[in-house]
Design brief:
23% of the residues lie in helices and 37% in strands. By secondary structure, it is α+β, with helices and mostly antiparallel strands.
Length: 447
């Protein structure tokens, strides 16, 4: 279905909602086509193709709102959708902060972004990729088993419209490939690890051989892991896990959490949250960016900005509702699904690289831990307390020595942010990215 057809469906839906008694309404439709395959131990295990979509309608009557979604777009089903939404909106409790954007708040012009690969990827192509990927992983000496390789491709159309006159549709695509393997045996101990790649354009992904070798080599390196005694040491987070630090920051400055007062950074606006020289940027308009989009889900303009500027927190992540709660201007950060109201969220975010390589970052560490994997979700968003299981390599006299497992890394995010030093190995490839990070003075709880 064309973008114009999707927008016409939404326009008719909003018109019908207002005729049925809604004061305002908005609607979203998301259509998608996807193919995915799984390959294990030299055999195809799974092949899935899907086509479909959902349509969601939000209606507002005064300060009451209701959201209803459906996969059925027949005339009868859409009439029922409108009736159910309006009936629900008349009975739910009032929400003083809900509402669509004023016309003056809407984006005046929108960029054209390169976020959809015109090429269609076949199941046969995906099967060739995962076959080569798993073979490369299993060819690594020391790999003893495979948990399988997977690949997928998809293309989506998104259309959003509202009774304030906003209407926009755009198309996105994405491809991914991953593999997980096991190294070692019952005598030496078994370890598992993985690697993956993802991109808007299929051709931009890493080669299957690189992904496979990466997974195999990571798994083999972990065999023979030792426990260590508890102590306080510098810790270096490998770039693959370091981006979790960015994720913790985004959760802490999310407008919904700030409005509820349930974040350890609730009073930190305009203060030095990180050390000097640390910058964290967002760019919703990056071409081929995995999270790029031309505007937010409420029709507001979005833009490139520094969330952290030379260590200082510059903004909250706000949609219209959280902005009204905090009596601030919205920041164009609304996201939305077909069955839920808008909520704050970010696009492409990265922590700026430093000047030293990971090797140079650890050169002066007499004892420390290089973390390659983190386990569990032991992060308290209210207090900032941080405690997660870790796997990695022990650092002695500036060099990696033996693998380490069954250790817990603990600290507080407020302190961790201030003591953070970035390496120079940043790669923009996941939509939320960071270089390897050194954080001094973390507590290791071992044996």
């Amino acid at each position: 279905m064309s973008q114009a057809d999707l927008l016409n469906i939404l326009s008719d839906l909003i018109t019908d909602a207002k005729k049925a008694g809604a004061d305002a309404a908005d609607a979203i439709v998301a259509d998608g086509t996807s193919v995915s395959v799984t390959y294990r131990l030299g055999k195809l295990e799974q092949l899935e193709r899907s086509e479909g979509g959902d349509i969601g309608l939000r209606v507002l009557i005064g300060k009451r709102q209701a959201i209803v979604s459906s996969a059925d777009r027949s005339k009868e089903a859409l009439k029922e959708l409108v009736a159910r939404a309006v009936d629900m909106a008349r009975t739910v409790p009032e929400d003083p902060y809900c509402g669509i954007a004023e016309v003056s708040q809407l984006a005046k012009s929108l960029p054209t972004l390169d976020i959809c690969d015109p090429a269609k990827v076949s199941a046969e192509t995906l099967i060739e990729k995962v076959k080569a990927c798993e073979a490369a992983a299993r060819d690594v000496k020391g790999v003893t088993n495979s948990e399988g390789a997977s690949a997928g491709w998809g293309r989506s159309q998104v259309a959003i419209a509202a009774s304030n006159g906003f209407a926009r549709a755009y198309e996105t695509s994405g491809s991914s490939m991953s593999v997980s393997v096991i190294a070692g045996d019952s005598a030496s101990g078994m370890e598992t690890d993985y690697d993956y790649t993802t991109a808007v354009y299929f051709a931009d992904m890493k080669s299957p051989e690189d992904v496979g070798r990466g997974a195999g080599e990571r798994a083999v390196r972990k065999v023979g892991g030792r426990k260590i005694s508890s102590r306080k040491v510098p810790v270096i987070l490998d770039s693959r896990v370091a981006r979790g630090v960015v994720s913790h920051l985004l959760g802490a400055i999310n407008g919904s959490s700030v409005a509820r007062g349930t974040t350890f950074l609730k009073d930190a606006m305009g203060t030095d949250v990180f050390g000097p020289g640390i910058n964290i940027f967002e760019d919703p308009h990056r071409n081929r960016g995995l999270r790029s989009k031309p505007c937010d889900a409420e029709g507001l303009a979005n833009k490139q900005r520094a969330l952290i500027d030379n260590g200082k927190l510059t903004t909250w992540i706000l949609d219209l509702r959280s902005a009204r709660q905090l009596k601030l201007e919205p920041t164009g950060h609304a996201g939305r699904g077909t069955g839920s109201p808008p909520s704050p969220g970010t696009t492409n975010v990265w922590l700026e690289a430093g000047t030293l390589s990971p090797t140079e970052l650890m050169a002066d560490i007499k004892e420390g831990l290089f973390v390659t994997d983190l386990v569990g979700q032991g992060v308290n968003g209210v207090t900032g307390d941080y405690s997660r299981g870790a796997v990695g390599f022990w650092i002695e006299n500036g060099a990696l020595t033996y693998p380490v497992h069954e250790v817990t890394v603990a600290g507080n995010l407020k302190d961790m942010f201030k003591r953070l030093t970035p390496a120079n190995d940043l790669e923009l490839k996941y939509g939320m990215d960071a270089p390897s990070l050194r954080i001094d003075g973390l507590t290791l709880a071992g044996m």
